[in-house]
Amino acid sequence: MLKLYAMFLTLIFLVELVAAIVGFVFRHEIKNSFKNNYEKALKQYNSTGDYRSHAVDKIQSTLHCCGVTDYRDWTDTNYYSEKGFPKSCCKREDCTPLRDADKVNNELIGIFLAYCLSRAITNNQYEIV
Fold first, then answer.
1. Backbone angles phi, psi at 107, to 5 degrees
2. CB-based contacts of 109: which residues, under 8 Å, 6+ apart?
3. Which residues are CB-neighbours of 103 under 8 A, at least 6 positions away?
4. Alpha-carbon distance 111 to 62, whole Å?
5. What distance in Å separates the CA atoms of residue 83 and residue 53, rounded to the nearest whole number?
6. Which residue has the higher pLDDT, 17 or 75?
7. Residue 1 has pLDDT above 70, yes or no
8. Which residues pair with 104 in a beta bridge?
9. N or C: which end of the chain has fewer CB within 10 A?
10. Alpha-carbon Rg of the chain, whole angstroms?
11. Which domains does the chain have, with CATH numbers?
12. Backbone angles phi, psi at 104, to 5 degrees
């Protein structure tokens, strides 16, 4: 019985290891896939509450960001031309953003710059001085 338990644990470990390796190898494809799907969700965004729009709202309110790279991504959407920015782009809870860019979250730029800095440090860490 103990050998069976150890075998299952080993199998689970190997599956997790393979998943981690596959995720690392295909990280760029996964990133591009997420970006393309998120851009599609922004283009098809509406306030009726379908699952894509709800996911966009949840992502923007949780991560305190607006759009894929910044708030200007919304200017190409039908929703923006009709109603402006969605409420999930608000910096404060009591705002009603229409087309005022100063009321929306744009911290994603800082997150992106932090990512670029950490990547540059990691890439330069192994160079011979």
1. -70, -10
2. 69, 70
3. 85, 89, 90, 91, 92, 95, 97
4. 14
5. 14
6. 17
7. yes
8. 90
9. C
10. 20
11. 33-125 (1.10.1450)
12. -105, 160
Question: Can you say whether the dihedral through the CA atoms of 118, 122, 127, 129 is positive or negative?
Answer: positive
- What letter represents residue 22's amino acid? V
Lowest mean pLDDT, pick from 1-5, 22-26, 31-35, 80-84? 80-84
Distances (CA, A) of 69 to 10, 16, 94, 100, 122: 41, 31, 24, 17, 23
The CA-atom distances, in angstroms, between 110 and each of 47, 64, 74, 89, 94 are 28, 11, 18, 16, 24
Q: Is 16 exposed, middle or buried (0-12, 13-18, 19+ CB in 10 A)?
A: exposed
Q: Which residue has the tokens 């087309």?
A: 99
* Contacts (Cβ under 8 Å, ≥6 apart) of 90: 96, 97, 103, 104, 105
Q: Compute the C-alpha angle 120/66/114, nearest 5°.
A: 15
Q: Residue 3 corresponds to which amino acid? A: K
Retrieve residue 1's tokens. Answer: 């019985």
